[in-house]
Amino acid sequence: MAMALLNLIRHAERYADKSITYLAPDGKDRAQYIARCATGKAPTLMFPRPPSALLAGRRQEVTGHNSTRPWETLHPLAMKSGLRLDNHVDFQDVSGFEAYLKTLPSGSSVLVAWEHKMMGELARAVDPQGLAPSKYPEHCDSEWREPEYTMGACYDVIWQFVLYRSHSGESWRAKAFSHLHMGFAGKGSKCSEAFEPFSNPSSWPQLIQEGASVVSVTPGMIPACALGFCSLLFLVLGRLHALLPDTQSTRLGGKEPLLESPETYILVC
């Protein structure tokens, strides 16, 4: 069975005045942050392998209500990585979005930037089981306090889908979903949260070998030192447990508890 990874994000910060169709200065800083952190040498939770495809929703209306913000959000990454930035799918064309994904080969790692009001529709195109929320959050709890002109809007959340299909003639369908954060904290901020170097599960043994302190816990037990980042790792381990080969598809859909057996997991504190 073929597999691909889809990261779906909202375009970066805009001005309060919607008639200004390009990114605000903070949005441009976020775009640079994405470019820098997505092209680092170390694998991350957001990109266990380097991005291989970029898509930005296009908005060009007869009424003149246009927007270049999704394109601007990914353009620095396209320039830094050398990847082509596709910008041919209209922001309301869900079928076009699904058709674009269908052209991607197995092993693809795609980053998509869009207008947040349409992200629920995009999610349903690949996620008929409803693993993801129906709407992108209006507000999010991030380390960085958004500027007042954003009126508390959320720009930091990543919707990540693990996609599967049996052959290239089929459309991609989500078998797992994760709600992540970019970790942007203003201009020049270090790569953190889902962009933290070696935050992907396959890199954890390397962290242990390099001397990170560890604590052994059983499923359902998270010690005090494991709060915060460690609780995120525990959640991801649950996702991985659900993706084991002998796991039934209903479990992948999140219909049953992800952690039942008494295996011991390692959390990095």
TrEMBL record:
Identify this protein by name: Uncharacterized protein
